[in-house]
Design a protein that fits this description.
With 664 residues, this protein is of the alpha/beta class. The protein has 21 helices and 20 strands. Bound molecules: adenosine-5'-diphosphate (ADP) and magnesium ion. The site of adenosine-5'-diphosphate (ADP) has 16 residues, from α9.
Length: 664
């Protein structure tokens, strides 16, 4: 059913909903709340300033209305509750005025202002409360509010929507799961804790089961998938390694030989190269590209941002200097003429290696003979982006790189369809970054430490969670921080800001200035999170560090300490100190990700939960790891059954494979 079947949904709303992955009425029904808030009638004898309260009563005095600004209004009235009389203020609800007659029963939800003994209401409901209400909290995006979404979902649930049952009957019986439709109703309208538990159990399992069916299926497919068989000259590779300005670590070497074997083998490579920030994955990727080139094929490497793509491009040019290899850079923002020339060269095979953003998978990009596809920071791309790039060649080999290492046990299950190469040791000579946690009140100390680094001729990254502090004055923003840093250091040092809303050309310009040391302090949101490499930067200061997951902070920290200089990371936060302290104790990404798994679930590793492109909607890998293991076993059993009784199970398998939202 189309979304517009639902009252109140117009084309604009459809656009926002699509970004949340909601495209049909059915999608609403499987858009699960991530938590519930139980609201009870507040105890009138225990009201404190700023409490969020719910109070019911009878209208005592009809509303007075005042208008201000453009189309804004406030309405005041009073209610008599069981024991008290409250003033109520509510904004922009002028349309309710005529309904609020003396004697009307209403429930007011909002914030209690003790000083004026009034309620700043966010919501009005007609009628008195029965015991308590349960509010569902959904992840929302753009202009969609939780309230609107709740209404859409309720409307969807009242329509004759389709329910897709993807768990085969024998498993539903084995685990005595409740019916899918009932689970969906319960998850949105819980009315019984026991039943809610059953519903969650079912839906979590369903999610993990379909995920594991996909992974196991991919694994089987891949075994059958013939790839490119080739021979690569070992001596040429060794020679290349000899000419590097450093000697490779053992893990780097092992990864390279593992990749070489895969490239040469007759099956298609599907390998994940995991290693901490700064562990030296890029050079391994470059050597893979070189080996692929030696065997006569084109290679493509896809980076998540323009900045990174350009950086890889430049260092690849440097590394391949004098080798007569033709290397191109393809991004979304190229001039039409340049782009045409590049596409031509890719198609006729004169271009050997191309680095780029997801522009690499645009429809009009045609490769002559793509033999190797590399994606950097693989968890940022959905599967279909990866497969789209892969489909540009005839079963090209596939290498994914991730700087967010996940513990081996999880990796083996989650990425069961990939082989793993881990780089666990850092190149020698690196000094671990010294990390400290500071409060915002220690700003003087922070500035002093920054000053010391600047005086040594070094550069500094400053990170803030927001671009411009609009409503949220509890968090630091790039623009304000830049002003403050100008005040502190502006006379002597150059300060620049960088954030995701800037044009690519502006960002590039600023990054260039920073890499040339024309700018000494770079203030930024997390757009510099991945990959950027400026060796002279020795300090990173993260404001509102509590806003970030440990894995993200660890990645940010990886921007510094990139050579022999002692580097520093200052985490500024007035909250969650204990969690942040973990980073002061260890520099090992595998350990940190283990902790992150323990403390926050998997959210951080698979895209923030708000982003809509997370893998799981309801399952939490940390809490549901046992279920995941069951799901893995069951998925393998299921695939056996598909083979034995295709007429019975093939349809279900297809349905799971084509199911759109789960990434594998
Ligand atoms: P990442 O794994 O985060 O992609 P990079 O590949 O960017 O790390 O490597 C970080 C830095 O370390 C780069 O400047 C690179 O040239 C350097 N590097 C890589 N391998 C070694 C090594 N074996 N010895 C010394 N430096 C190295
Ligand atoms: Mg990298």
């Amino acid at each position: 059913m189309e979304l517009t079947e639902i009252k109140g949904i117009g084309p604009k709303t459809v656009q926002s909903l699509e970004k949340m992955g909601i495209e049909t009425v059915e999608d609403f029904t499987t858009y699960y709340p991530y938590r519930y808030e139980i609201i009870r009638r507040s105890d009138e004898s225990k009201l404190n300033q700023n409490d969020r309260i719910m109070m019911d009563g009878v209208v005592e005095q009809t509303p007075t209305l005042s208008f201000f600004g453009r189309r804004k209004n406030s309405m005041r009235f009073s209610i008599q509750s069981l024991y008290n009389r409250f003033q109520v203020v509510i904004y922009n609800r002028a349309f309710l005025k005529n309904k609020l007659m003396v004697g009307t029963k209403v429930t007011v939800i909002g914030k209690y202002d003790k000083i004026h003994h009034r309620i700043i209401a966010s919501e009005l409901r007609f009628g008195l409360i029965e015991k308590e209400t349960i509010e569902r909290v959904y992840h929302v995006k753009e202009k969609i509010t939780n309230k609107a979404l709740t209404q859409y979902i309720d409307m969807a649930l009242s329509l004759p929507y389709q329910v897709e049952e993807v768990i085969p009957d024998y498993l539903n019986e084995r685990y005595q799961f409740i019916d899918k439709k009932r689970s969906i109703e319960q998850i949105h309208h819980p009315n019984n804790p026991e039943l809610l538990k059953e519903a969650r159990k079912k839906l979590i399992y369903e999610e993990l089961f379909s995920y594991m069916v996909k992974v196991s299926h991919l694994k089987q497919m891949r075994k059958r998938q013939k790839g490119i068989e080739r021979v690569i000259s070992e001596s040429s590779v060794k020679e290349f390694i000899q000419l590097l300005p450093f000697s490779l670590t053992e893990d780097q070497e092992r990864s390279i030989w593992e990749i070489k074997q895969d490239l040469e083998a007759e099956y298609q490579m599907n390998r994940l190269l995991q290693g901490d920030v700064g562990s030296g994955k890029t050079v391994v990727a470059f050597i893979a590209l070189y080996m692929n080139y030696l065997s006569g094929y084109q290679g493509a490497m896809m980076a998540p941002t323009e900045i990174l793509a350009r950086q890889h491009y430049e260092s690849l040019l440097e590394q391949m200097h004098g080798k007569n290899i033709k290397i191109g850079l393809l991004t979304g923002k190229m001039k039409a003429k340049e782009r045409r020339a590049l596409l031509q060269a890719l198609e006729d095979g004169t271009m050997d290696i191309v680095i780029g953003t997801h522009a690499l998978i645009s429809e009009d990009v045609i490769y002559h003979n793509l033999g190797l596809v590399i994606t950097d920071e693989q968890h940022r791309f959905g599967v279909h982006q990866r497969t789209n790039l892969m489909n540009k060649g005839k079963s090209p080999d596939m290498l994914s790189m991730s700087a967010t290492p996940i513990p081996r046990t999880y990796a083996l299950t989650l990425y069961g369809d990939m082989d793993l190469s881990n780089i666990e040791t850092m190149p020698s000579g690196r000094k671990p970054v010294i990390t400290t946690v500071k409060t915002e009140q220690q700003i003087r100390e922070i500035l002093t430490e920054m000053y010391e680094q600047l005086e040594l001729g070094h550069q500094i990254y400053v990170i803030a969670p927001l671009i411009e502090g609009e409503e949220d004055n509890t968090k630091n923003d790039v623009v304000t921080l830049k002003e403050n840093m100008e005040k502190a250091f502006g006379k002597k040092y150059q300060i620049a800001a960088l954030h995701g809303k800037m044009k690519a050309s502006e960002k590039e310009e600023i990054m260039n200035q920073f890499s040339k040391n024309d700018v000494q302090i770079l203030i930024s949101t997390t757009v510099i999170e991945v990959g950027v490499d400026v060796k002279n930067a020795t300090m990173i200061v993260v404001f509102n560090a509590e806003q970030f997951g440990l894995a993200t902070l660890h990645q940010l920290r990886g921007r510094v300490g990139r050579n022999q200089l002692q580097s520093y990371c200052l985490l500024v936060s007035n909250h969650e100190k204990e969690r942040l302290q973990i980073l002061t104790r260890t520099n090992n990404g595998f350990e940190i990700s283990e902790e992150d798994f323990k403390m926050r679930g998997s959210g951080d590793l698979f895209g923030s939960k708000q982003s809509g492109d997370m893998i799981f909607k309801i399952a939490d890998l940390r809490k549901n790891y046992k279920t995941l293991l069951y799901a893995k076993k069951d998925s393998e059993e299921f695939l056996r059954k598909v083979k034995e009784e295709p007429q019975k199970y093939q349809g279900l398998l297809n349905q799971i494979i084509e199911g759109k939202r789960y990434v594998s």
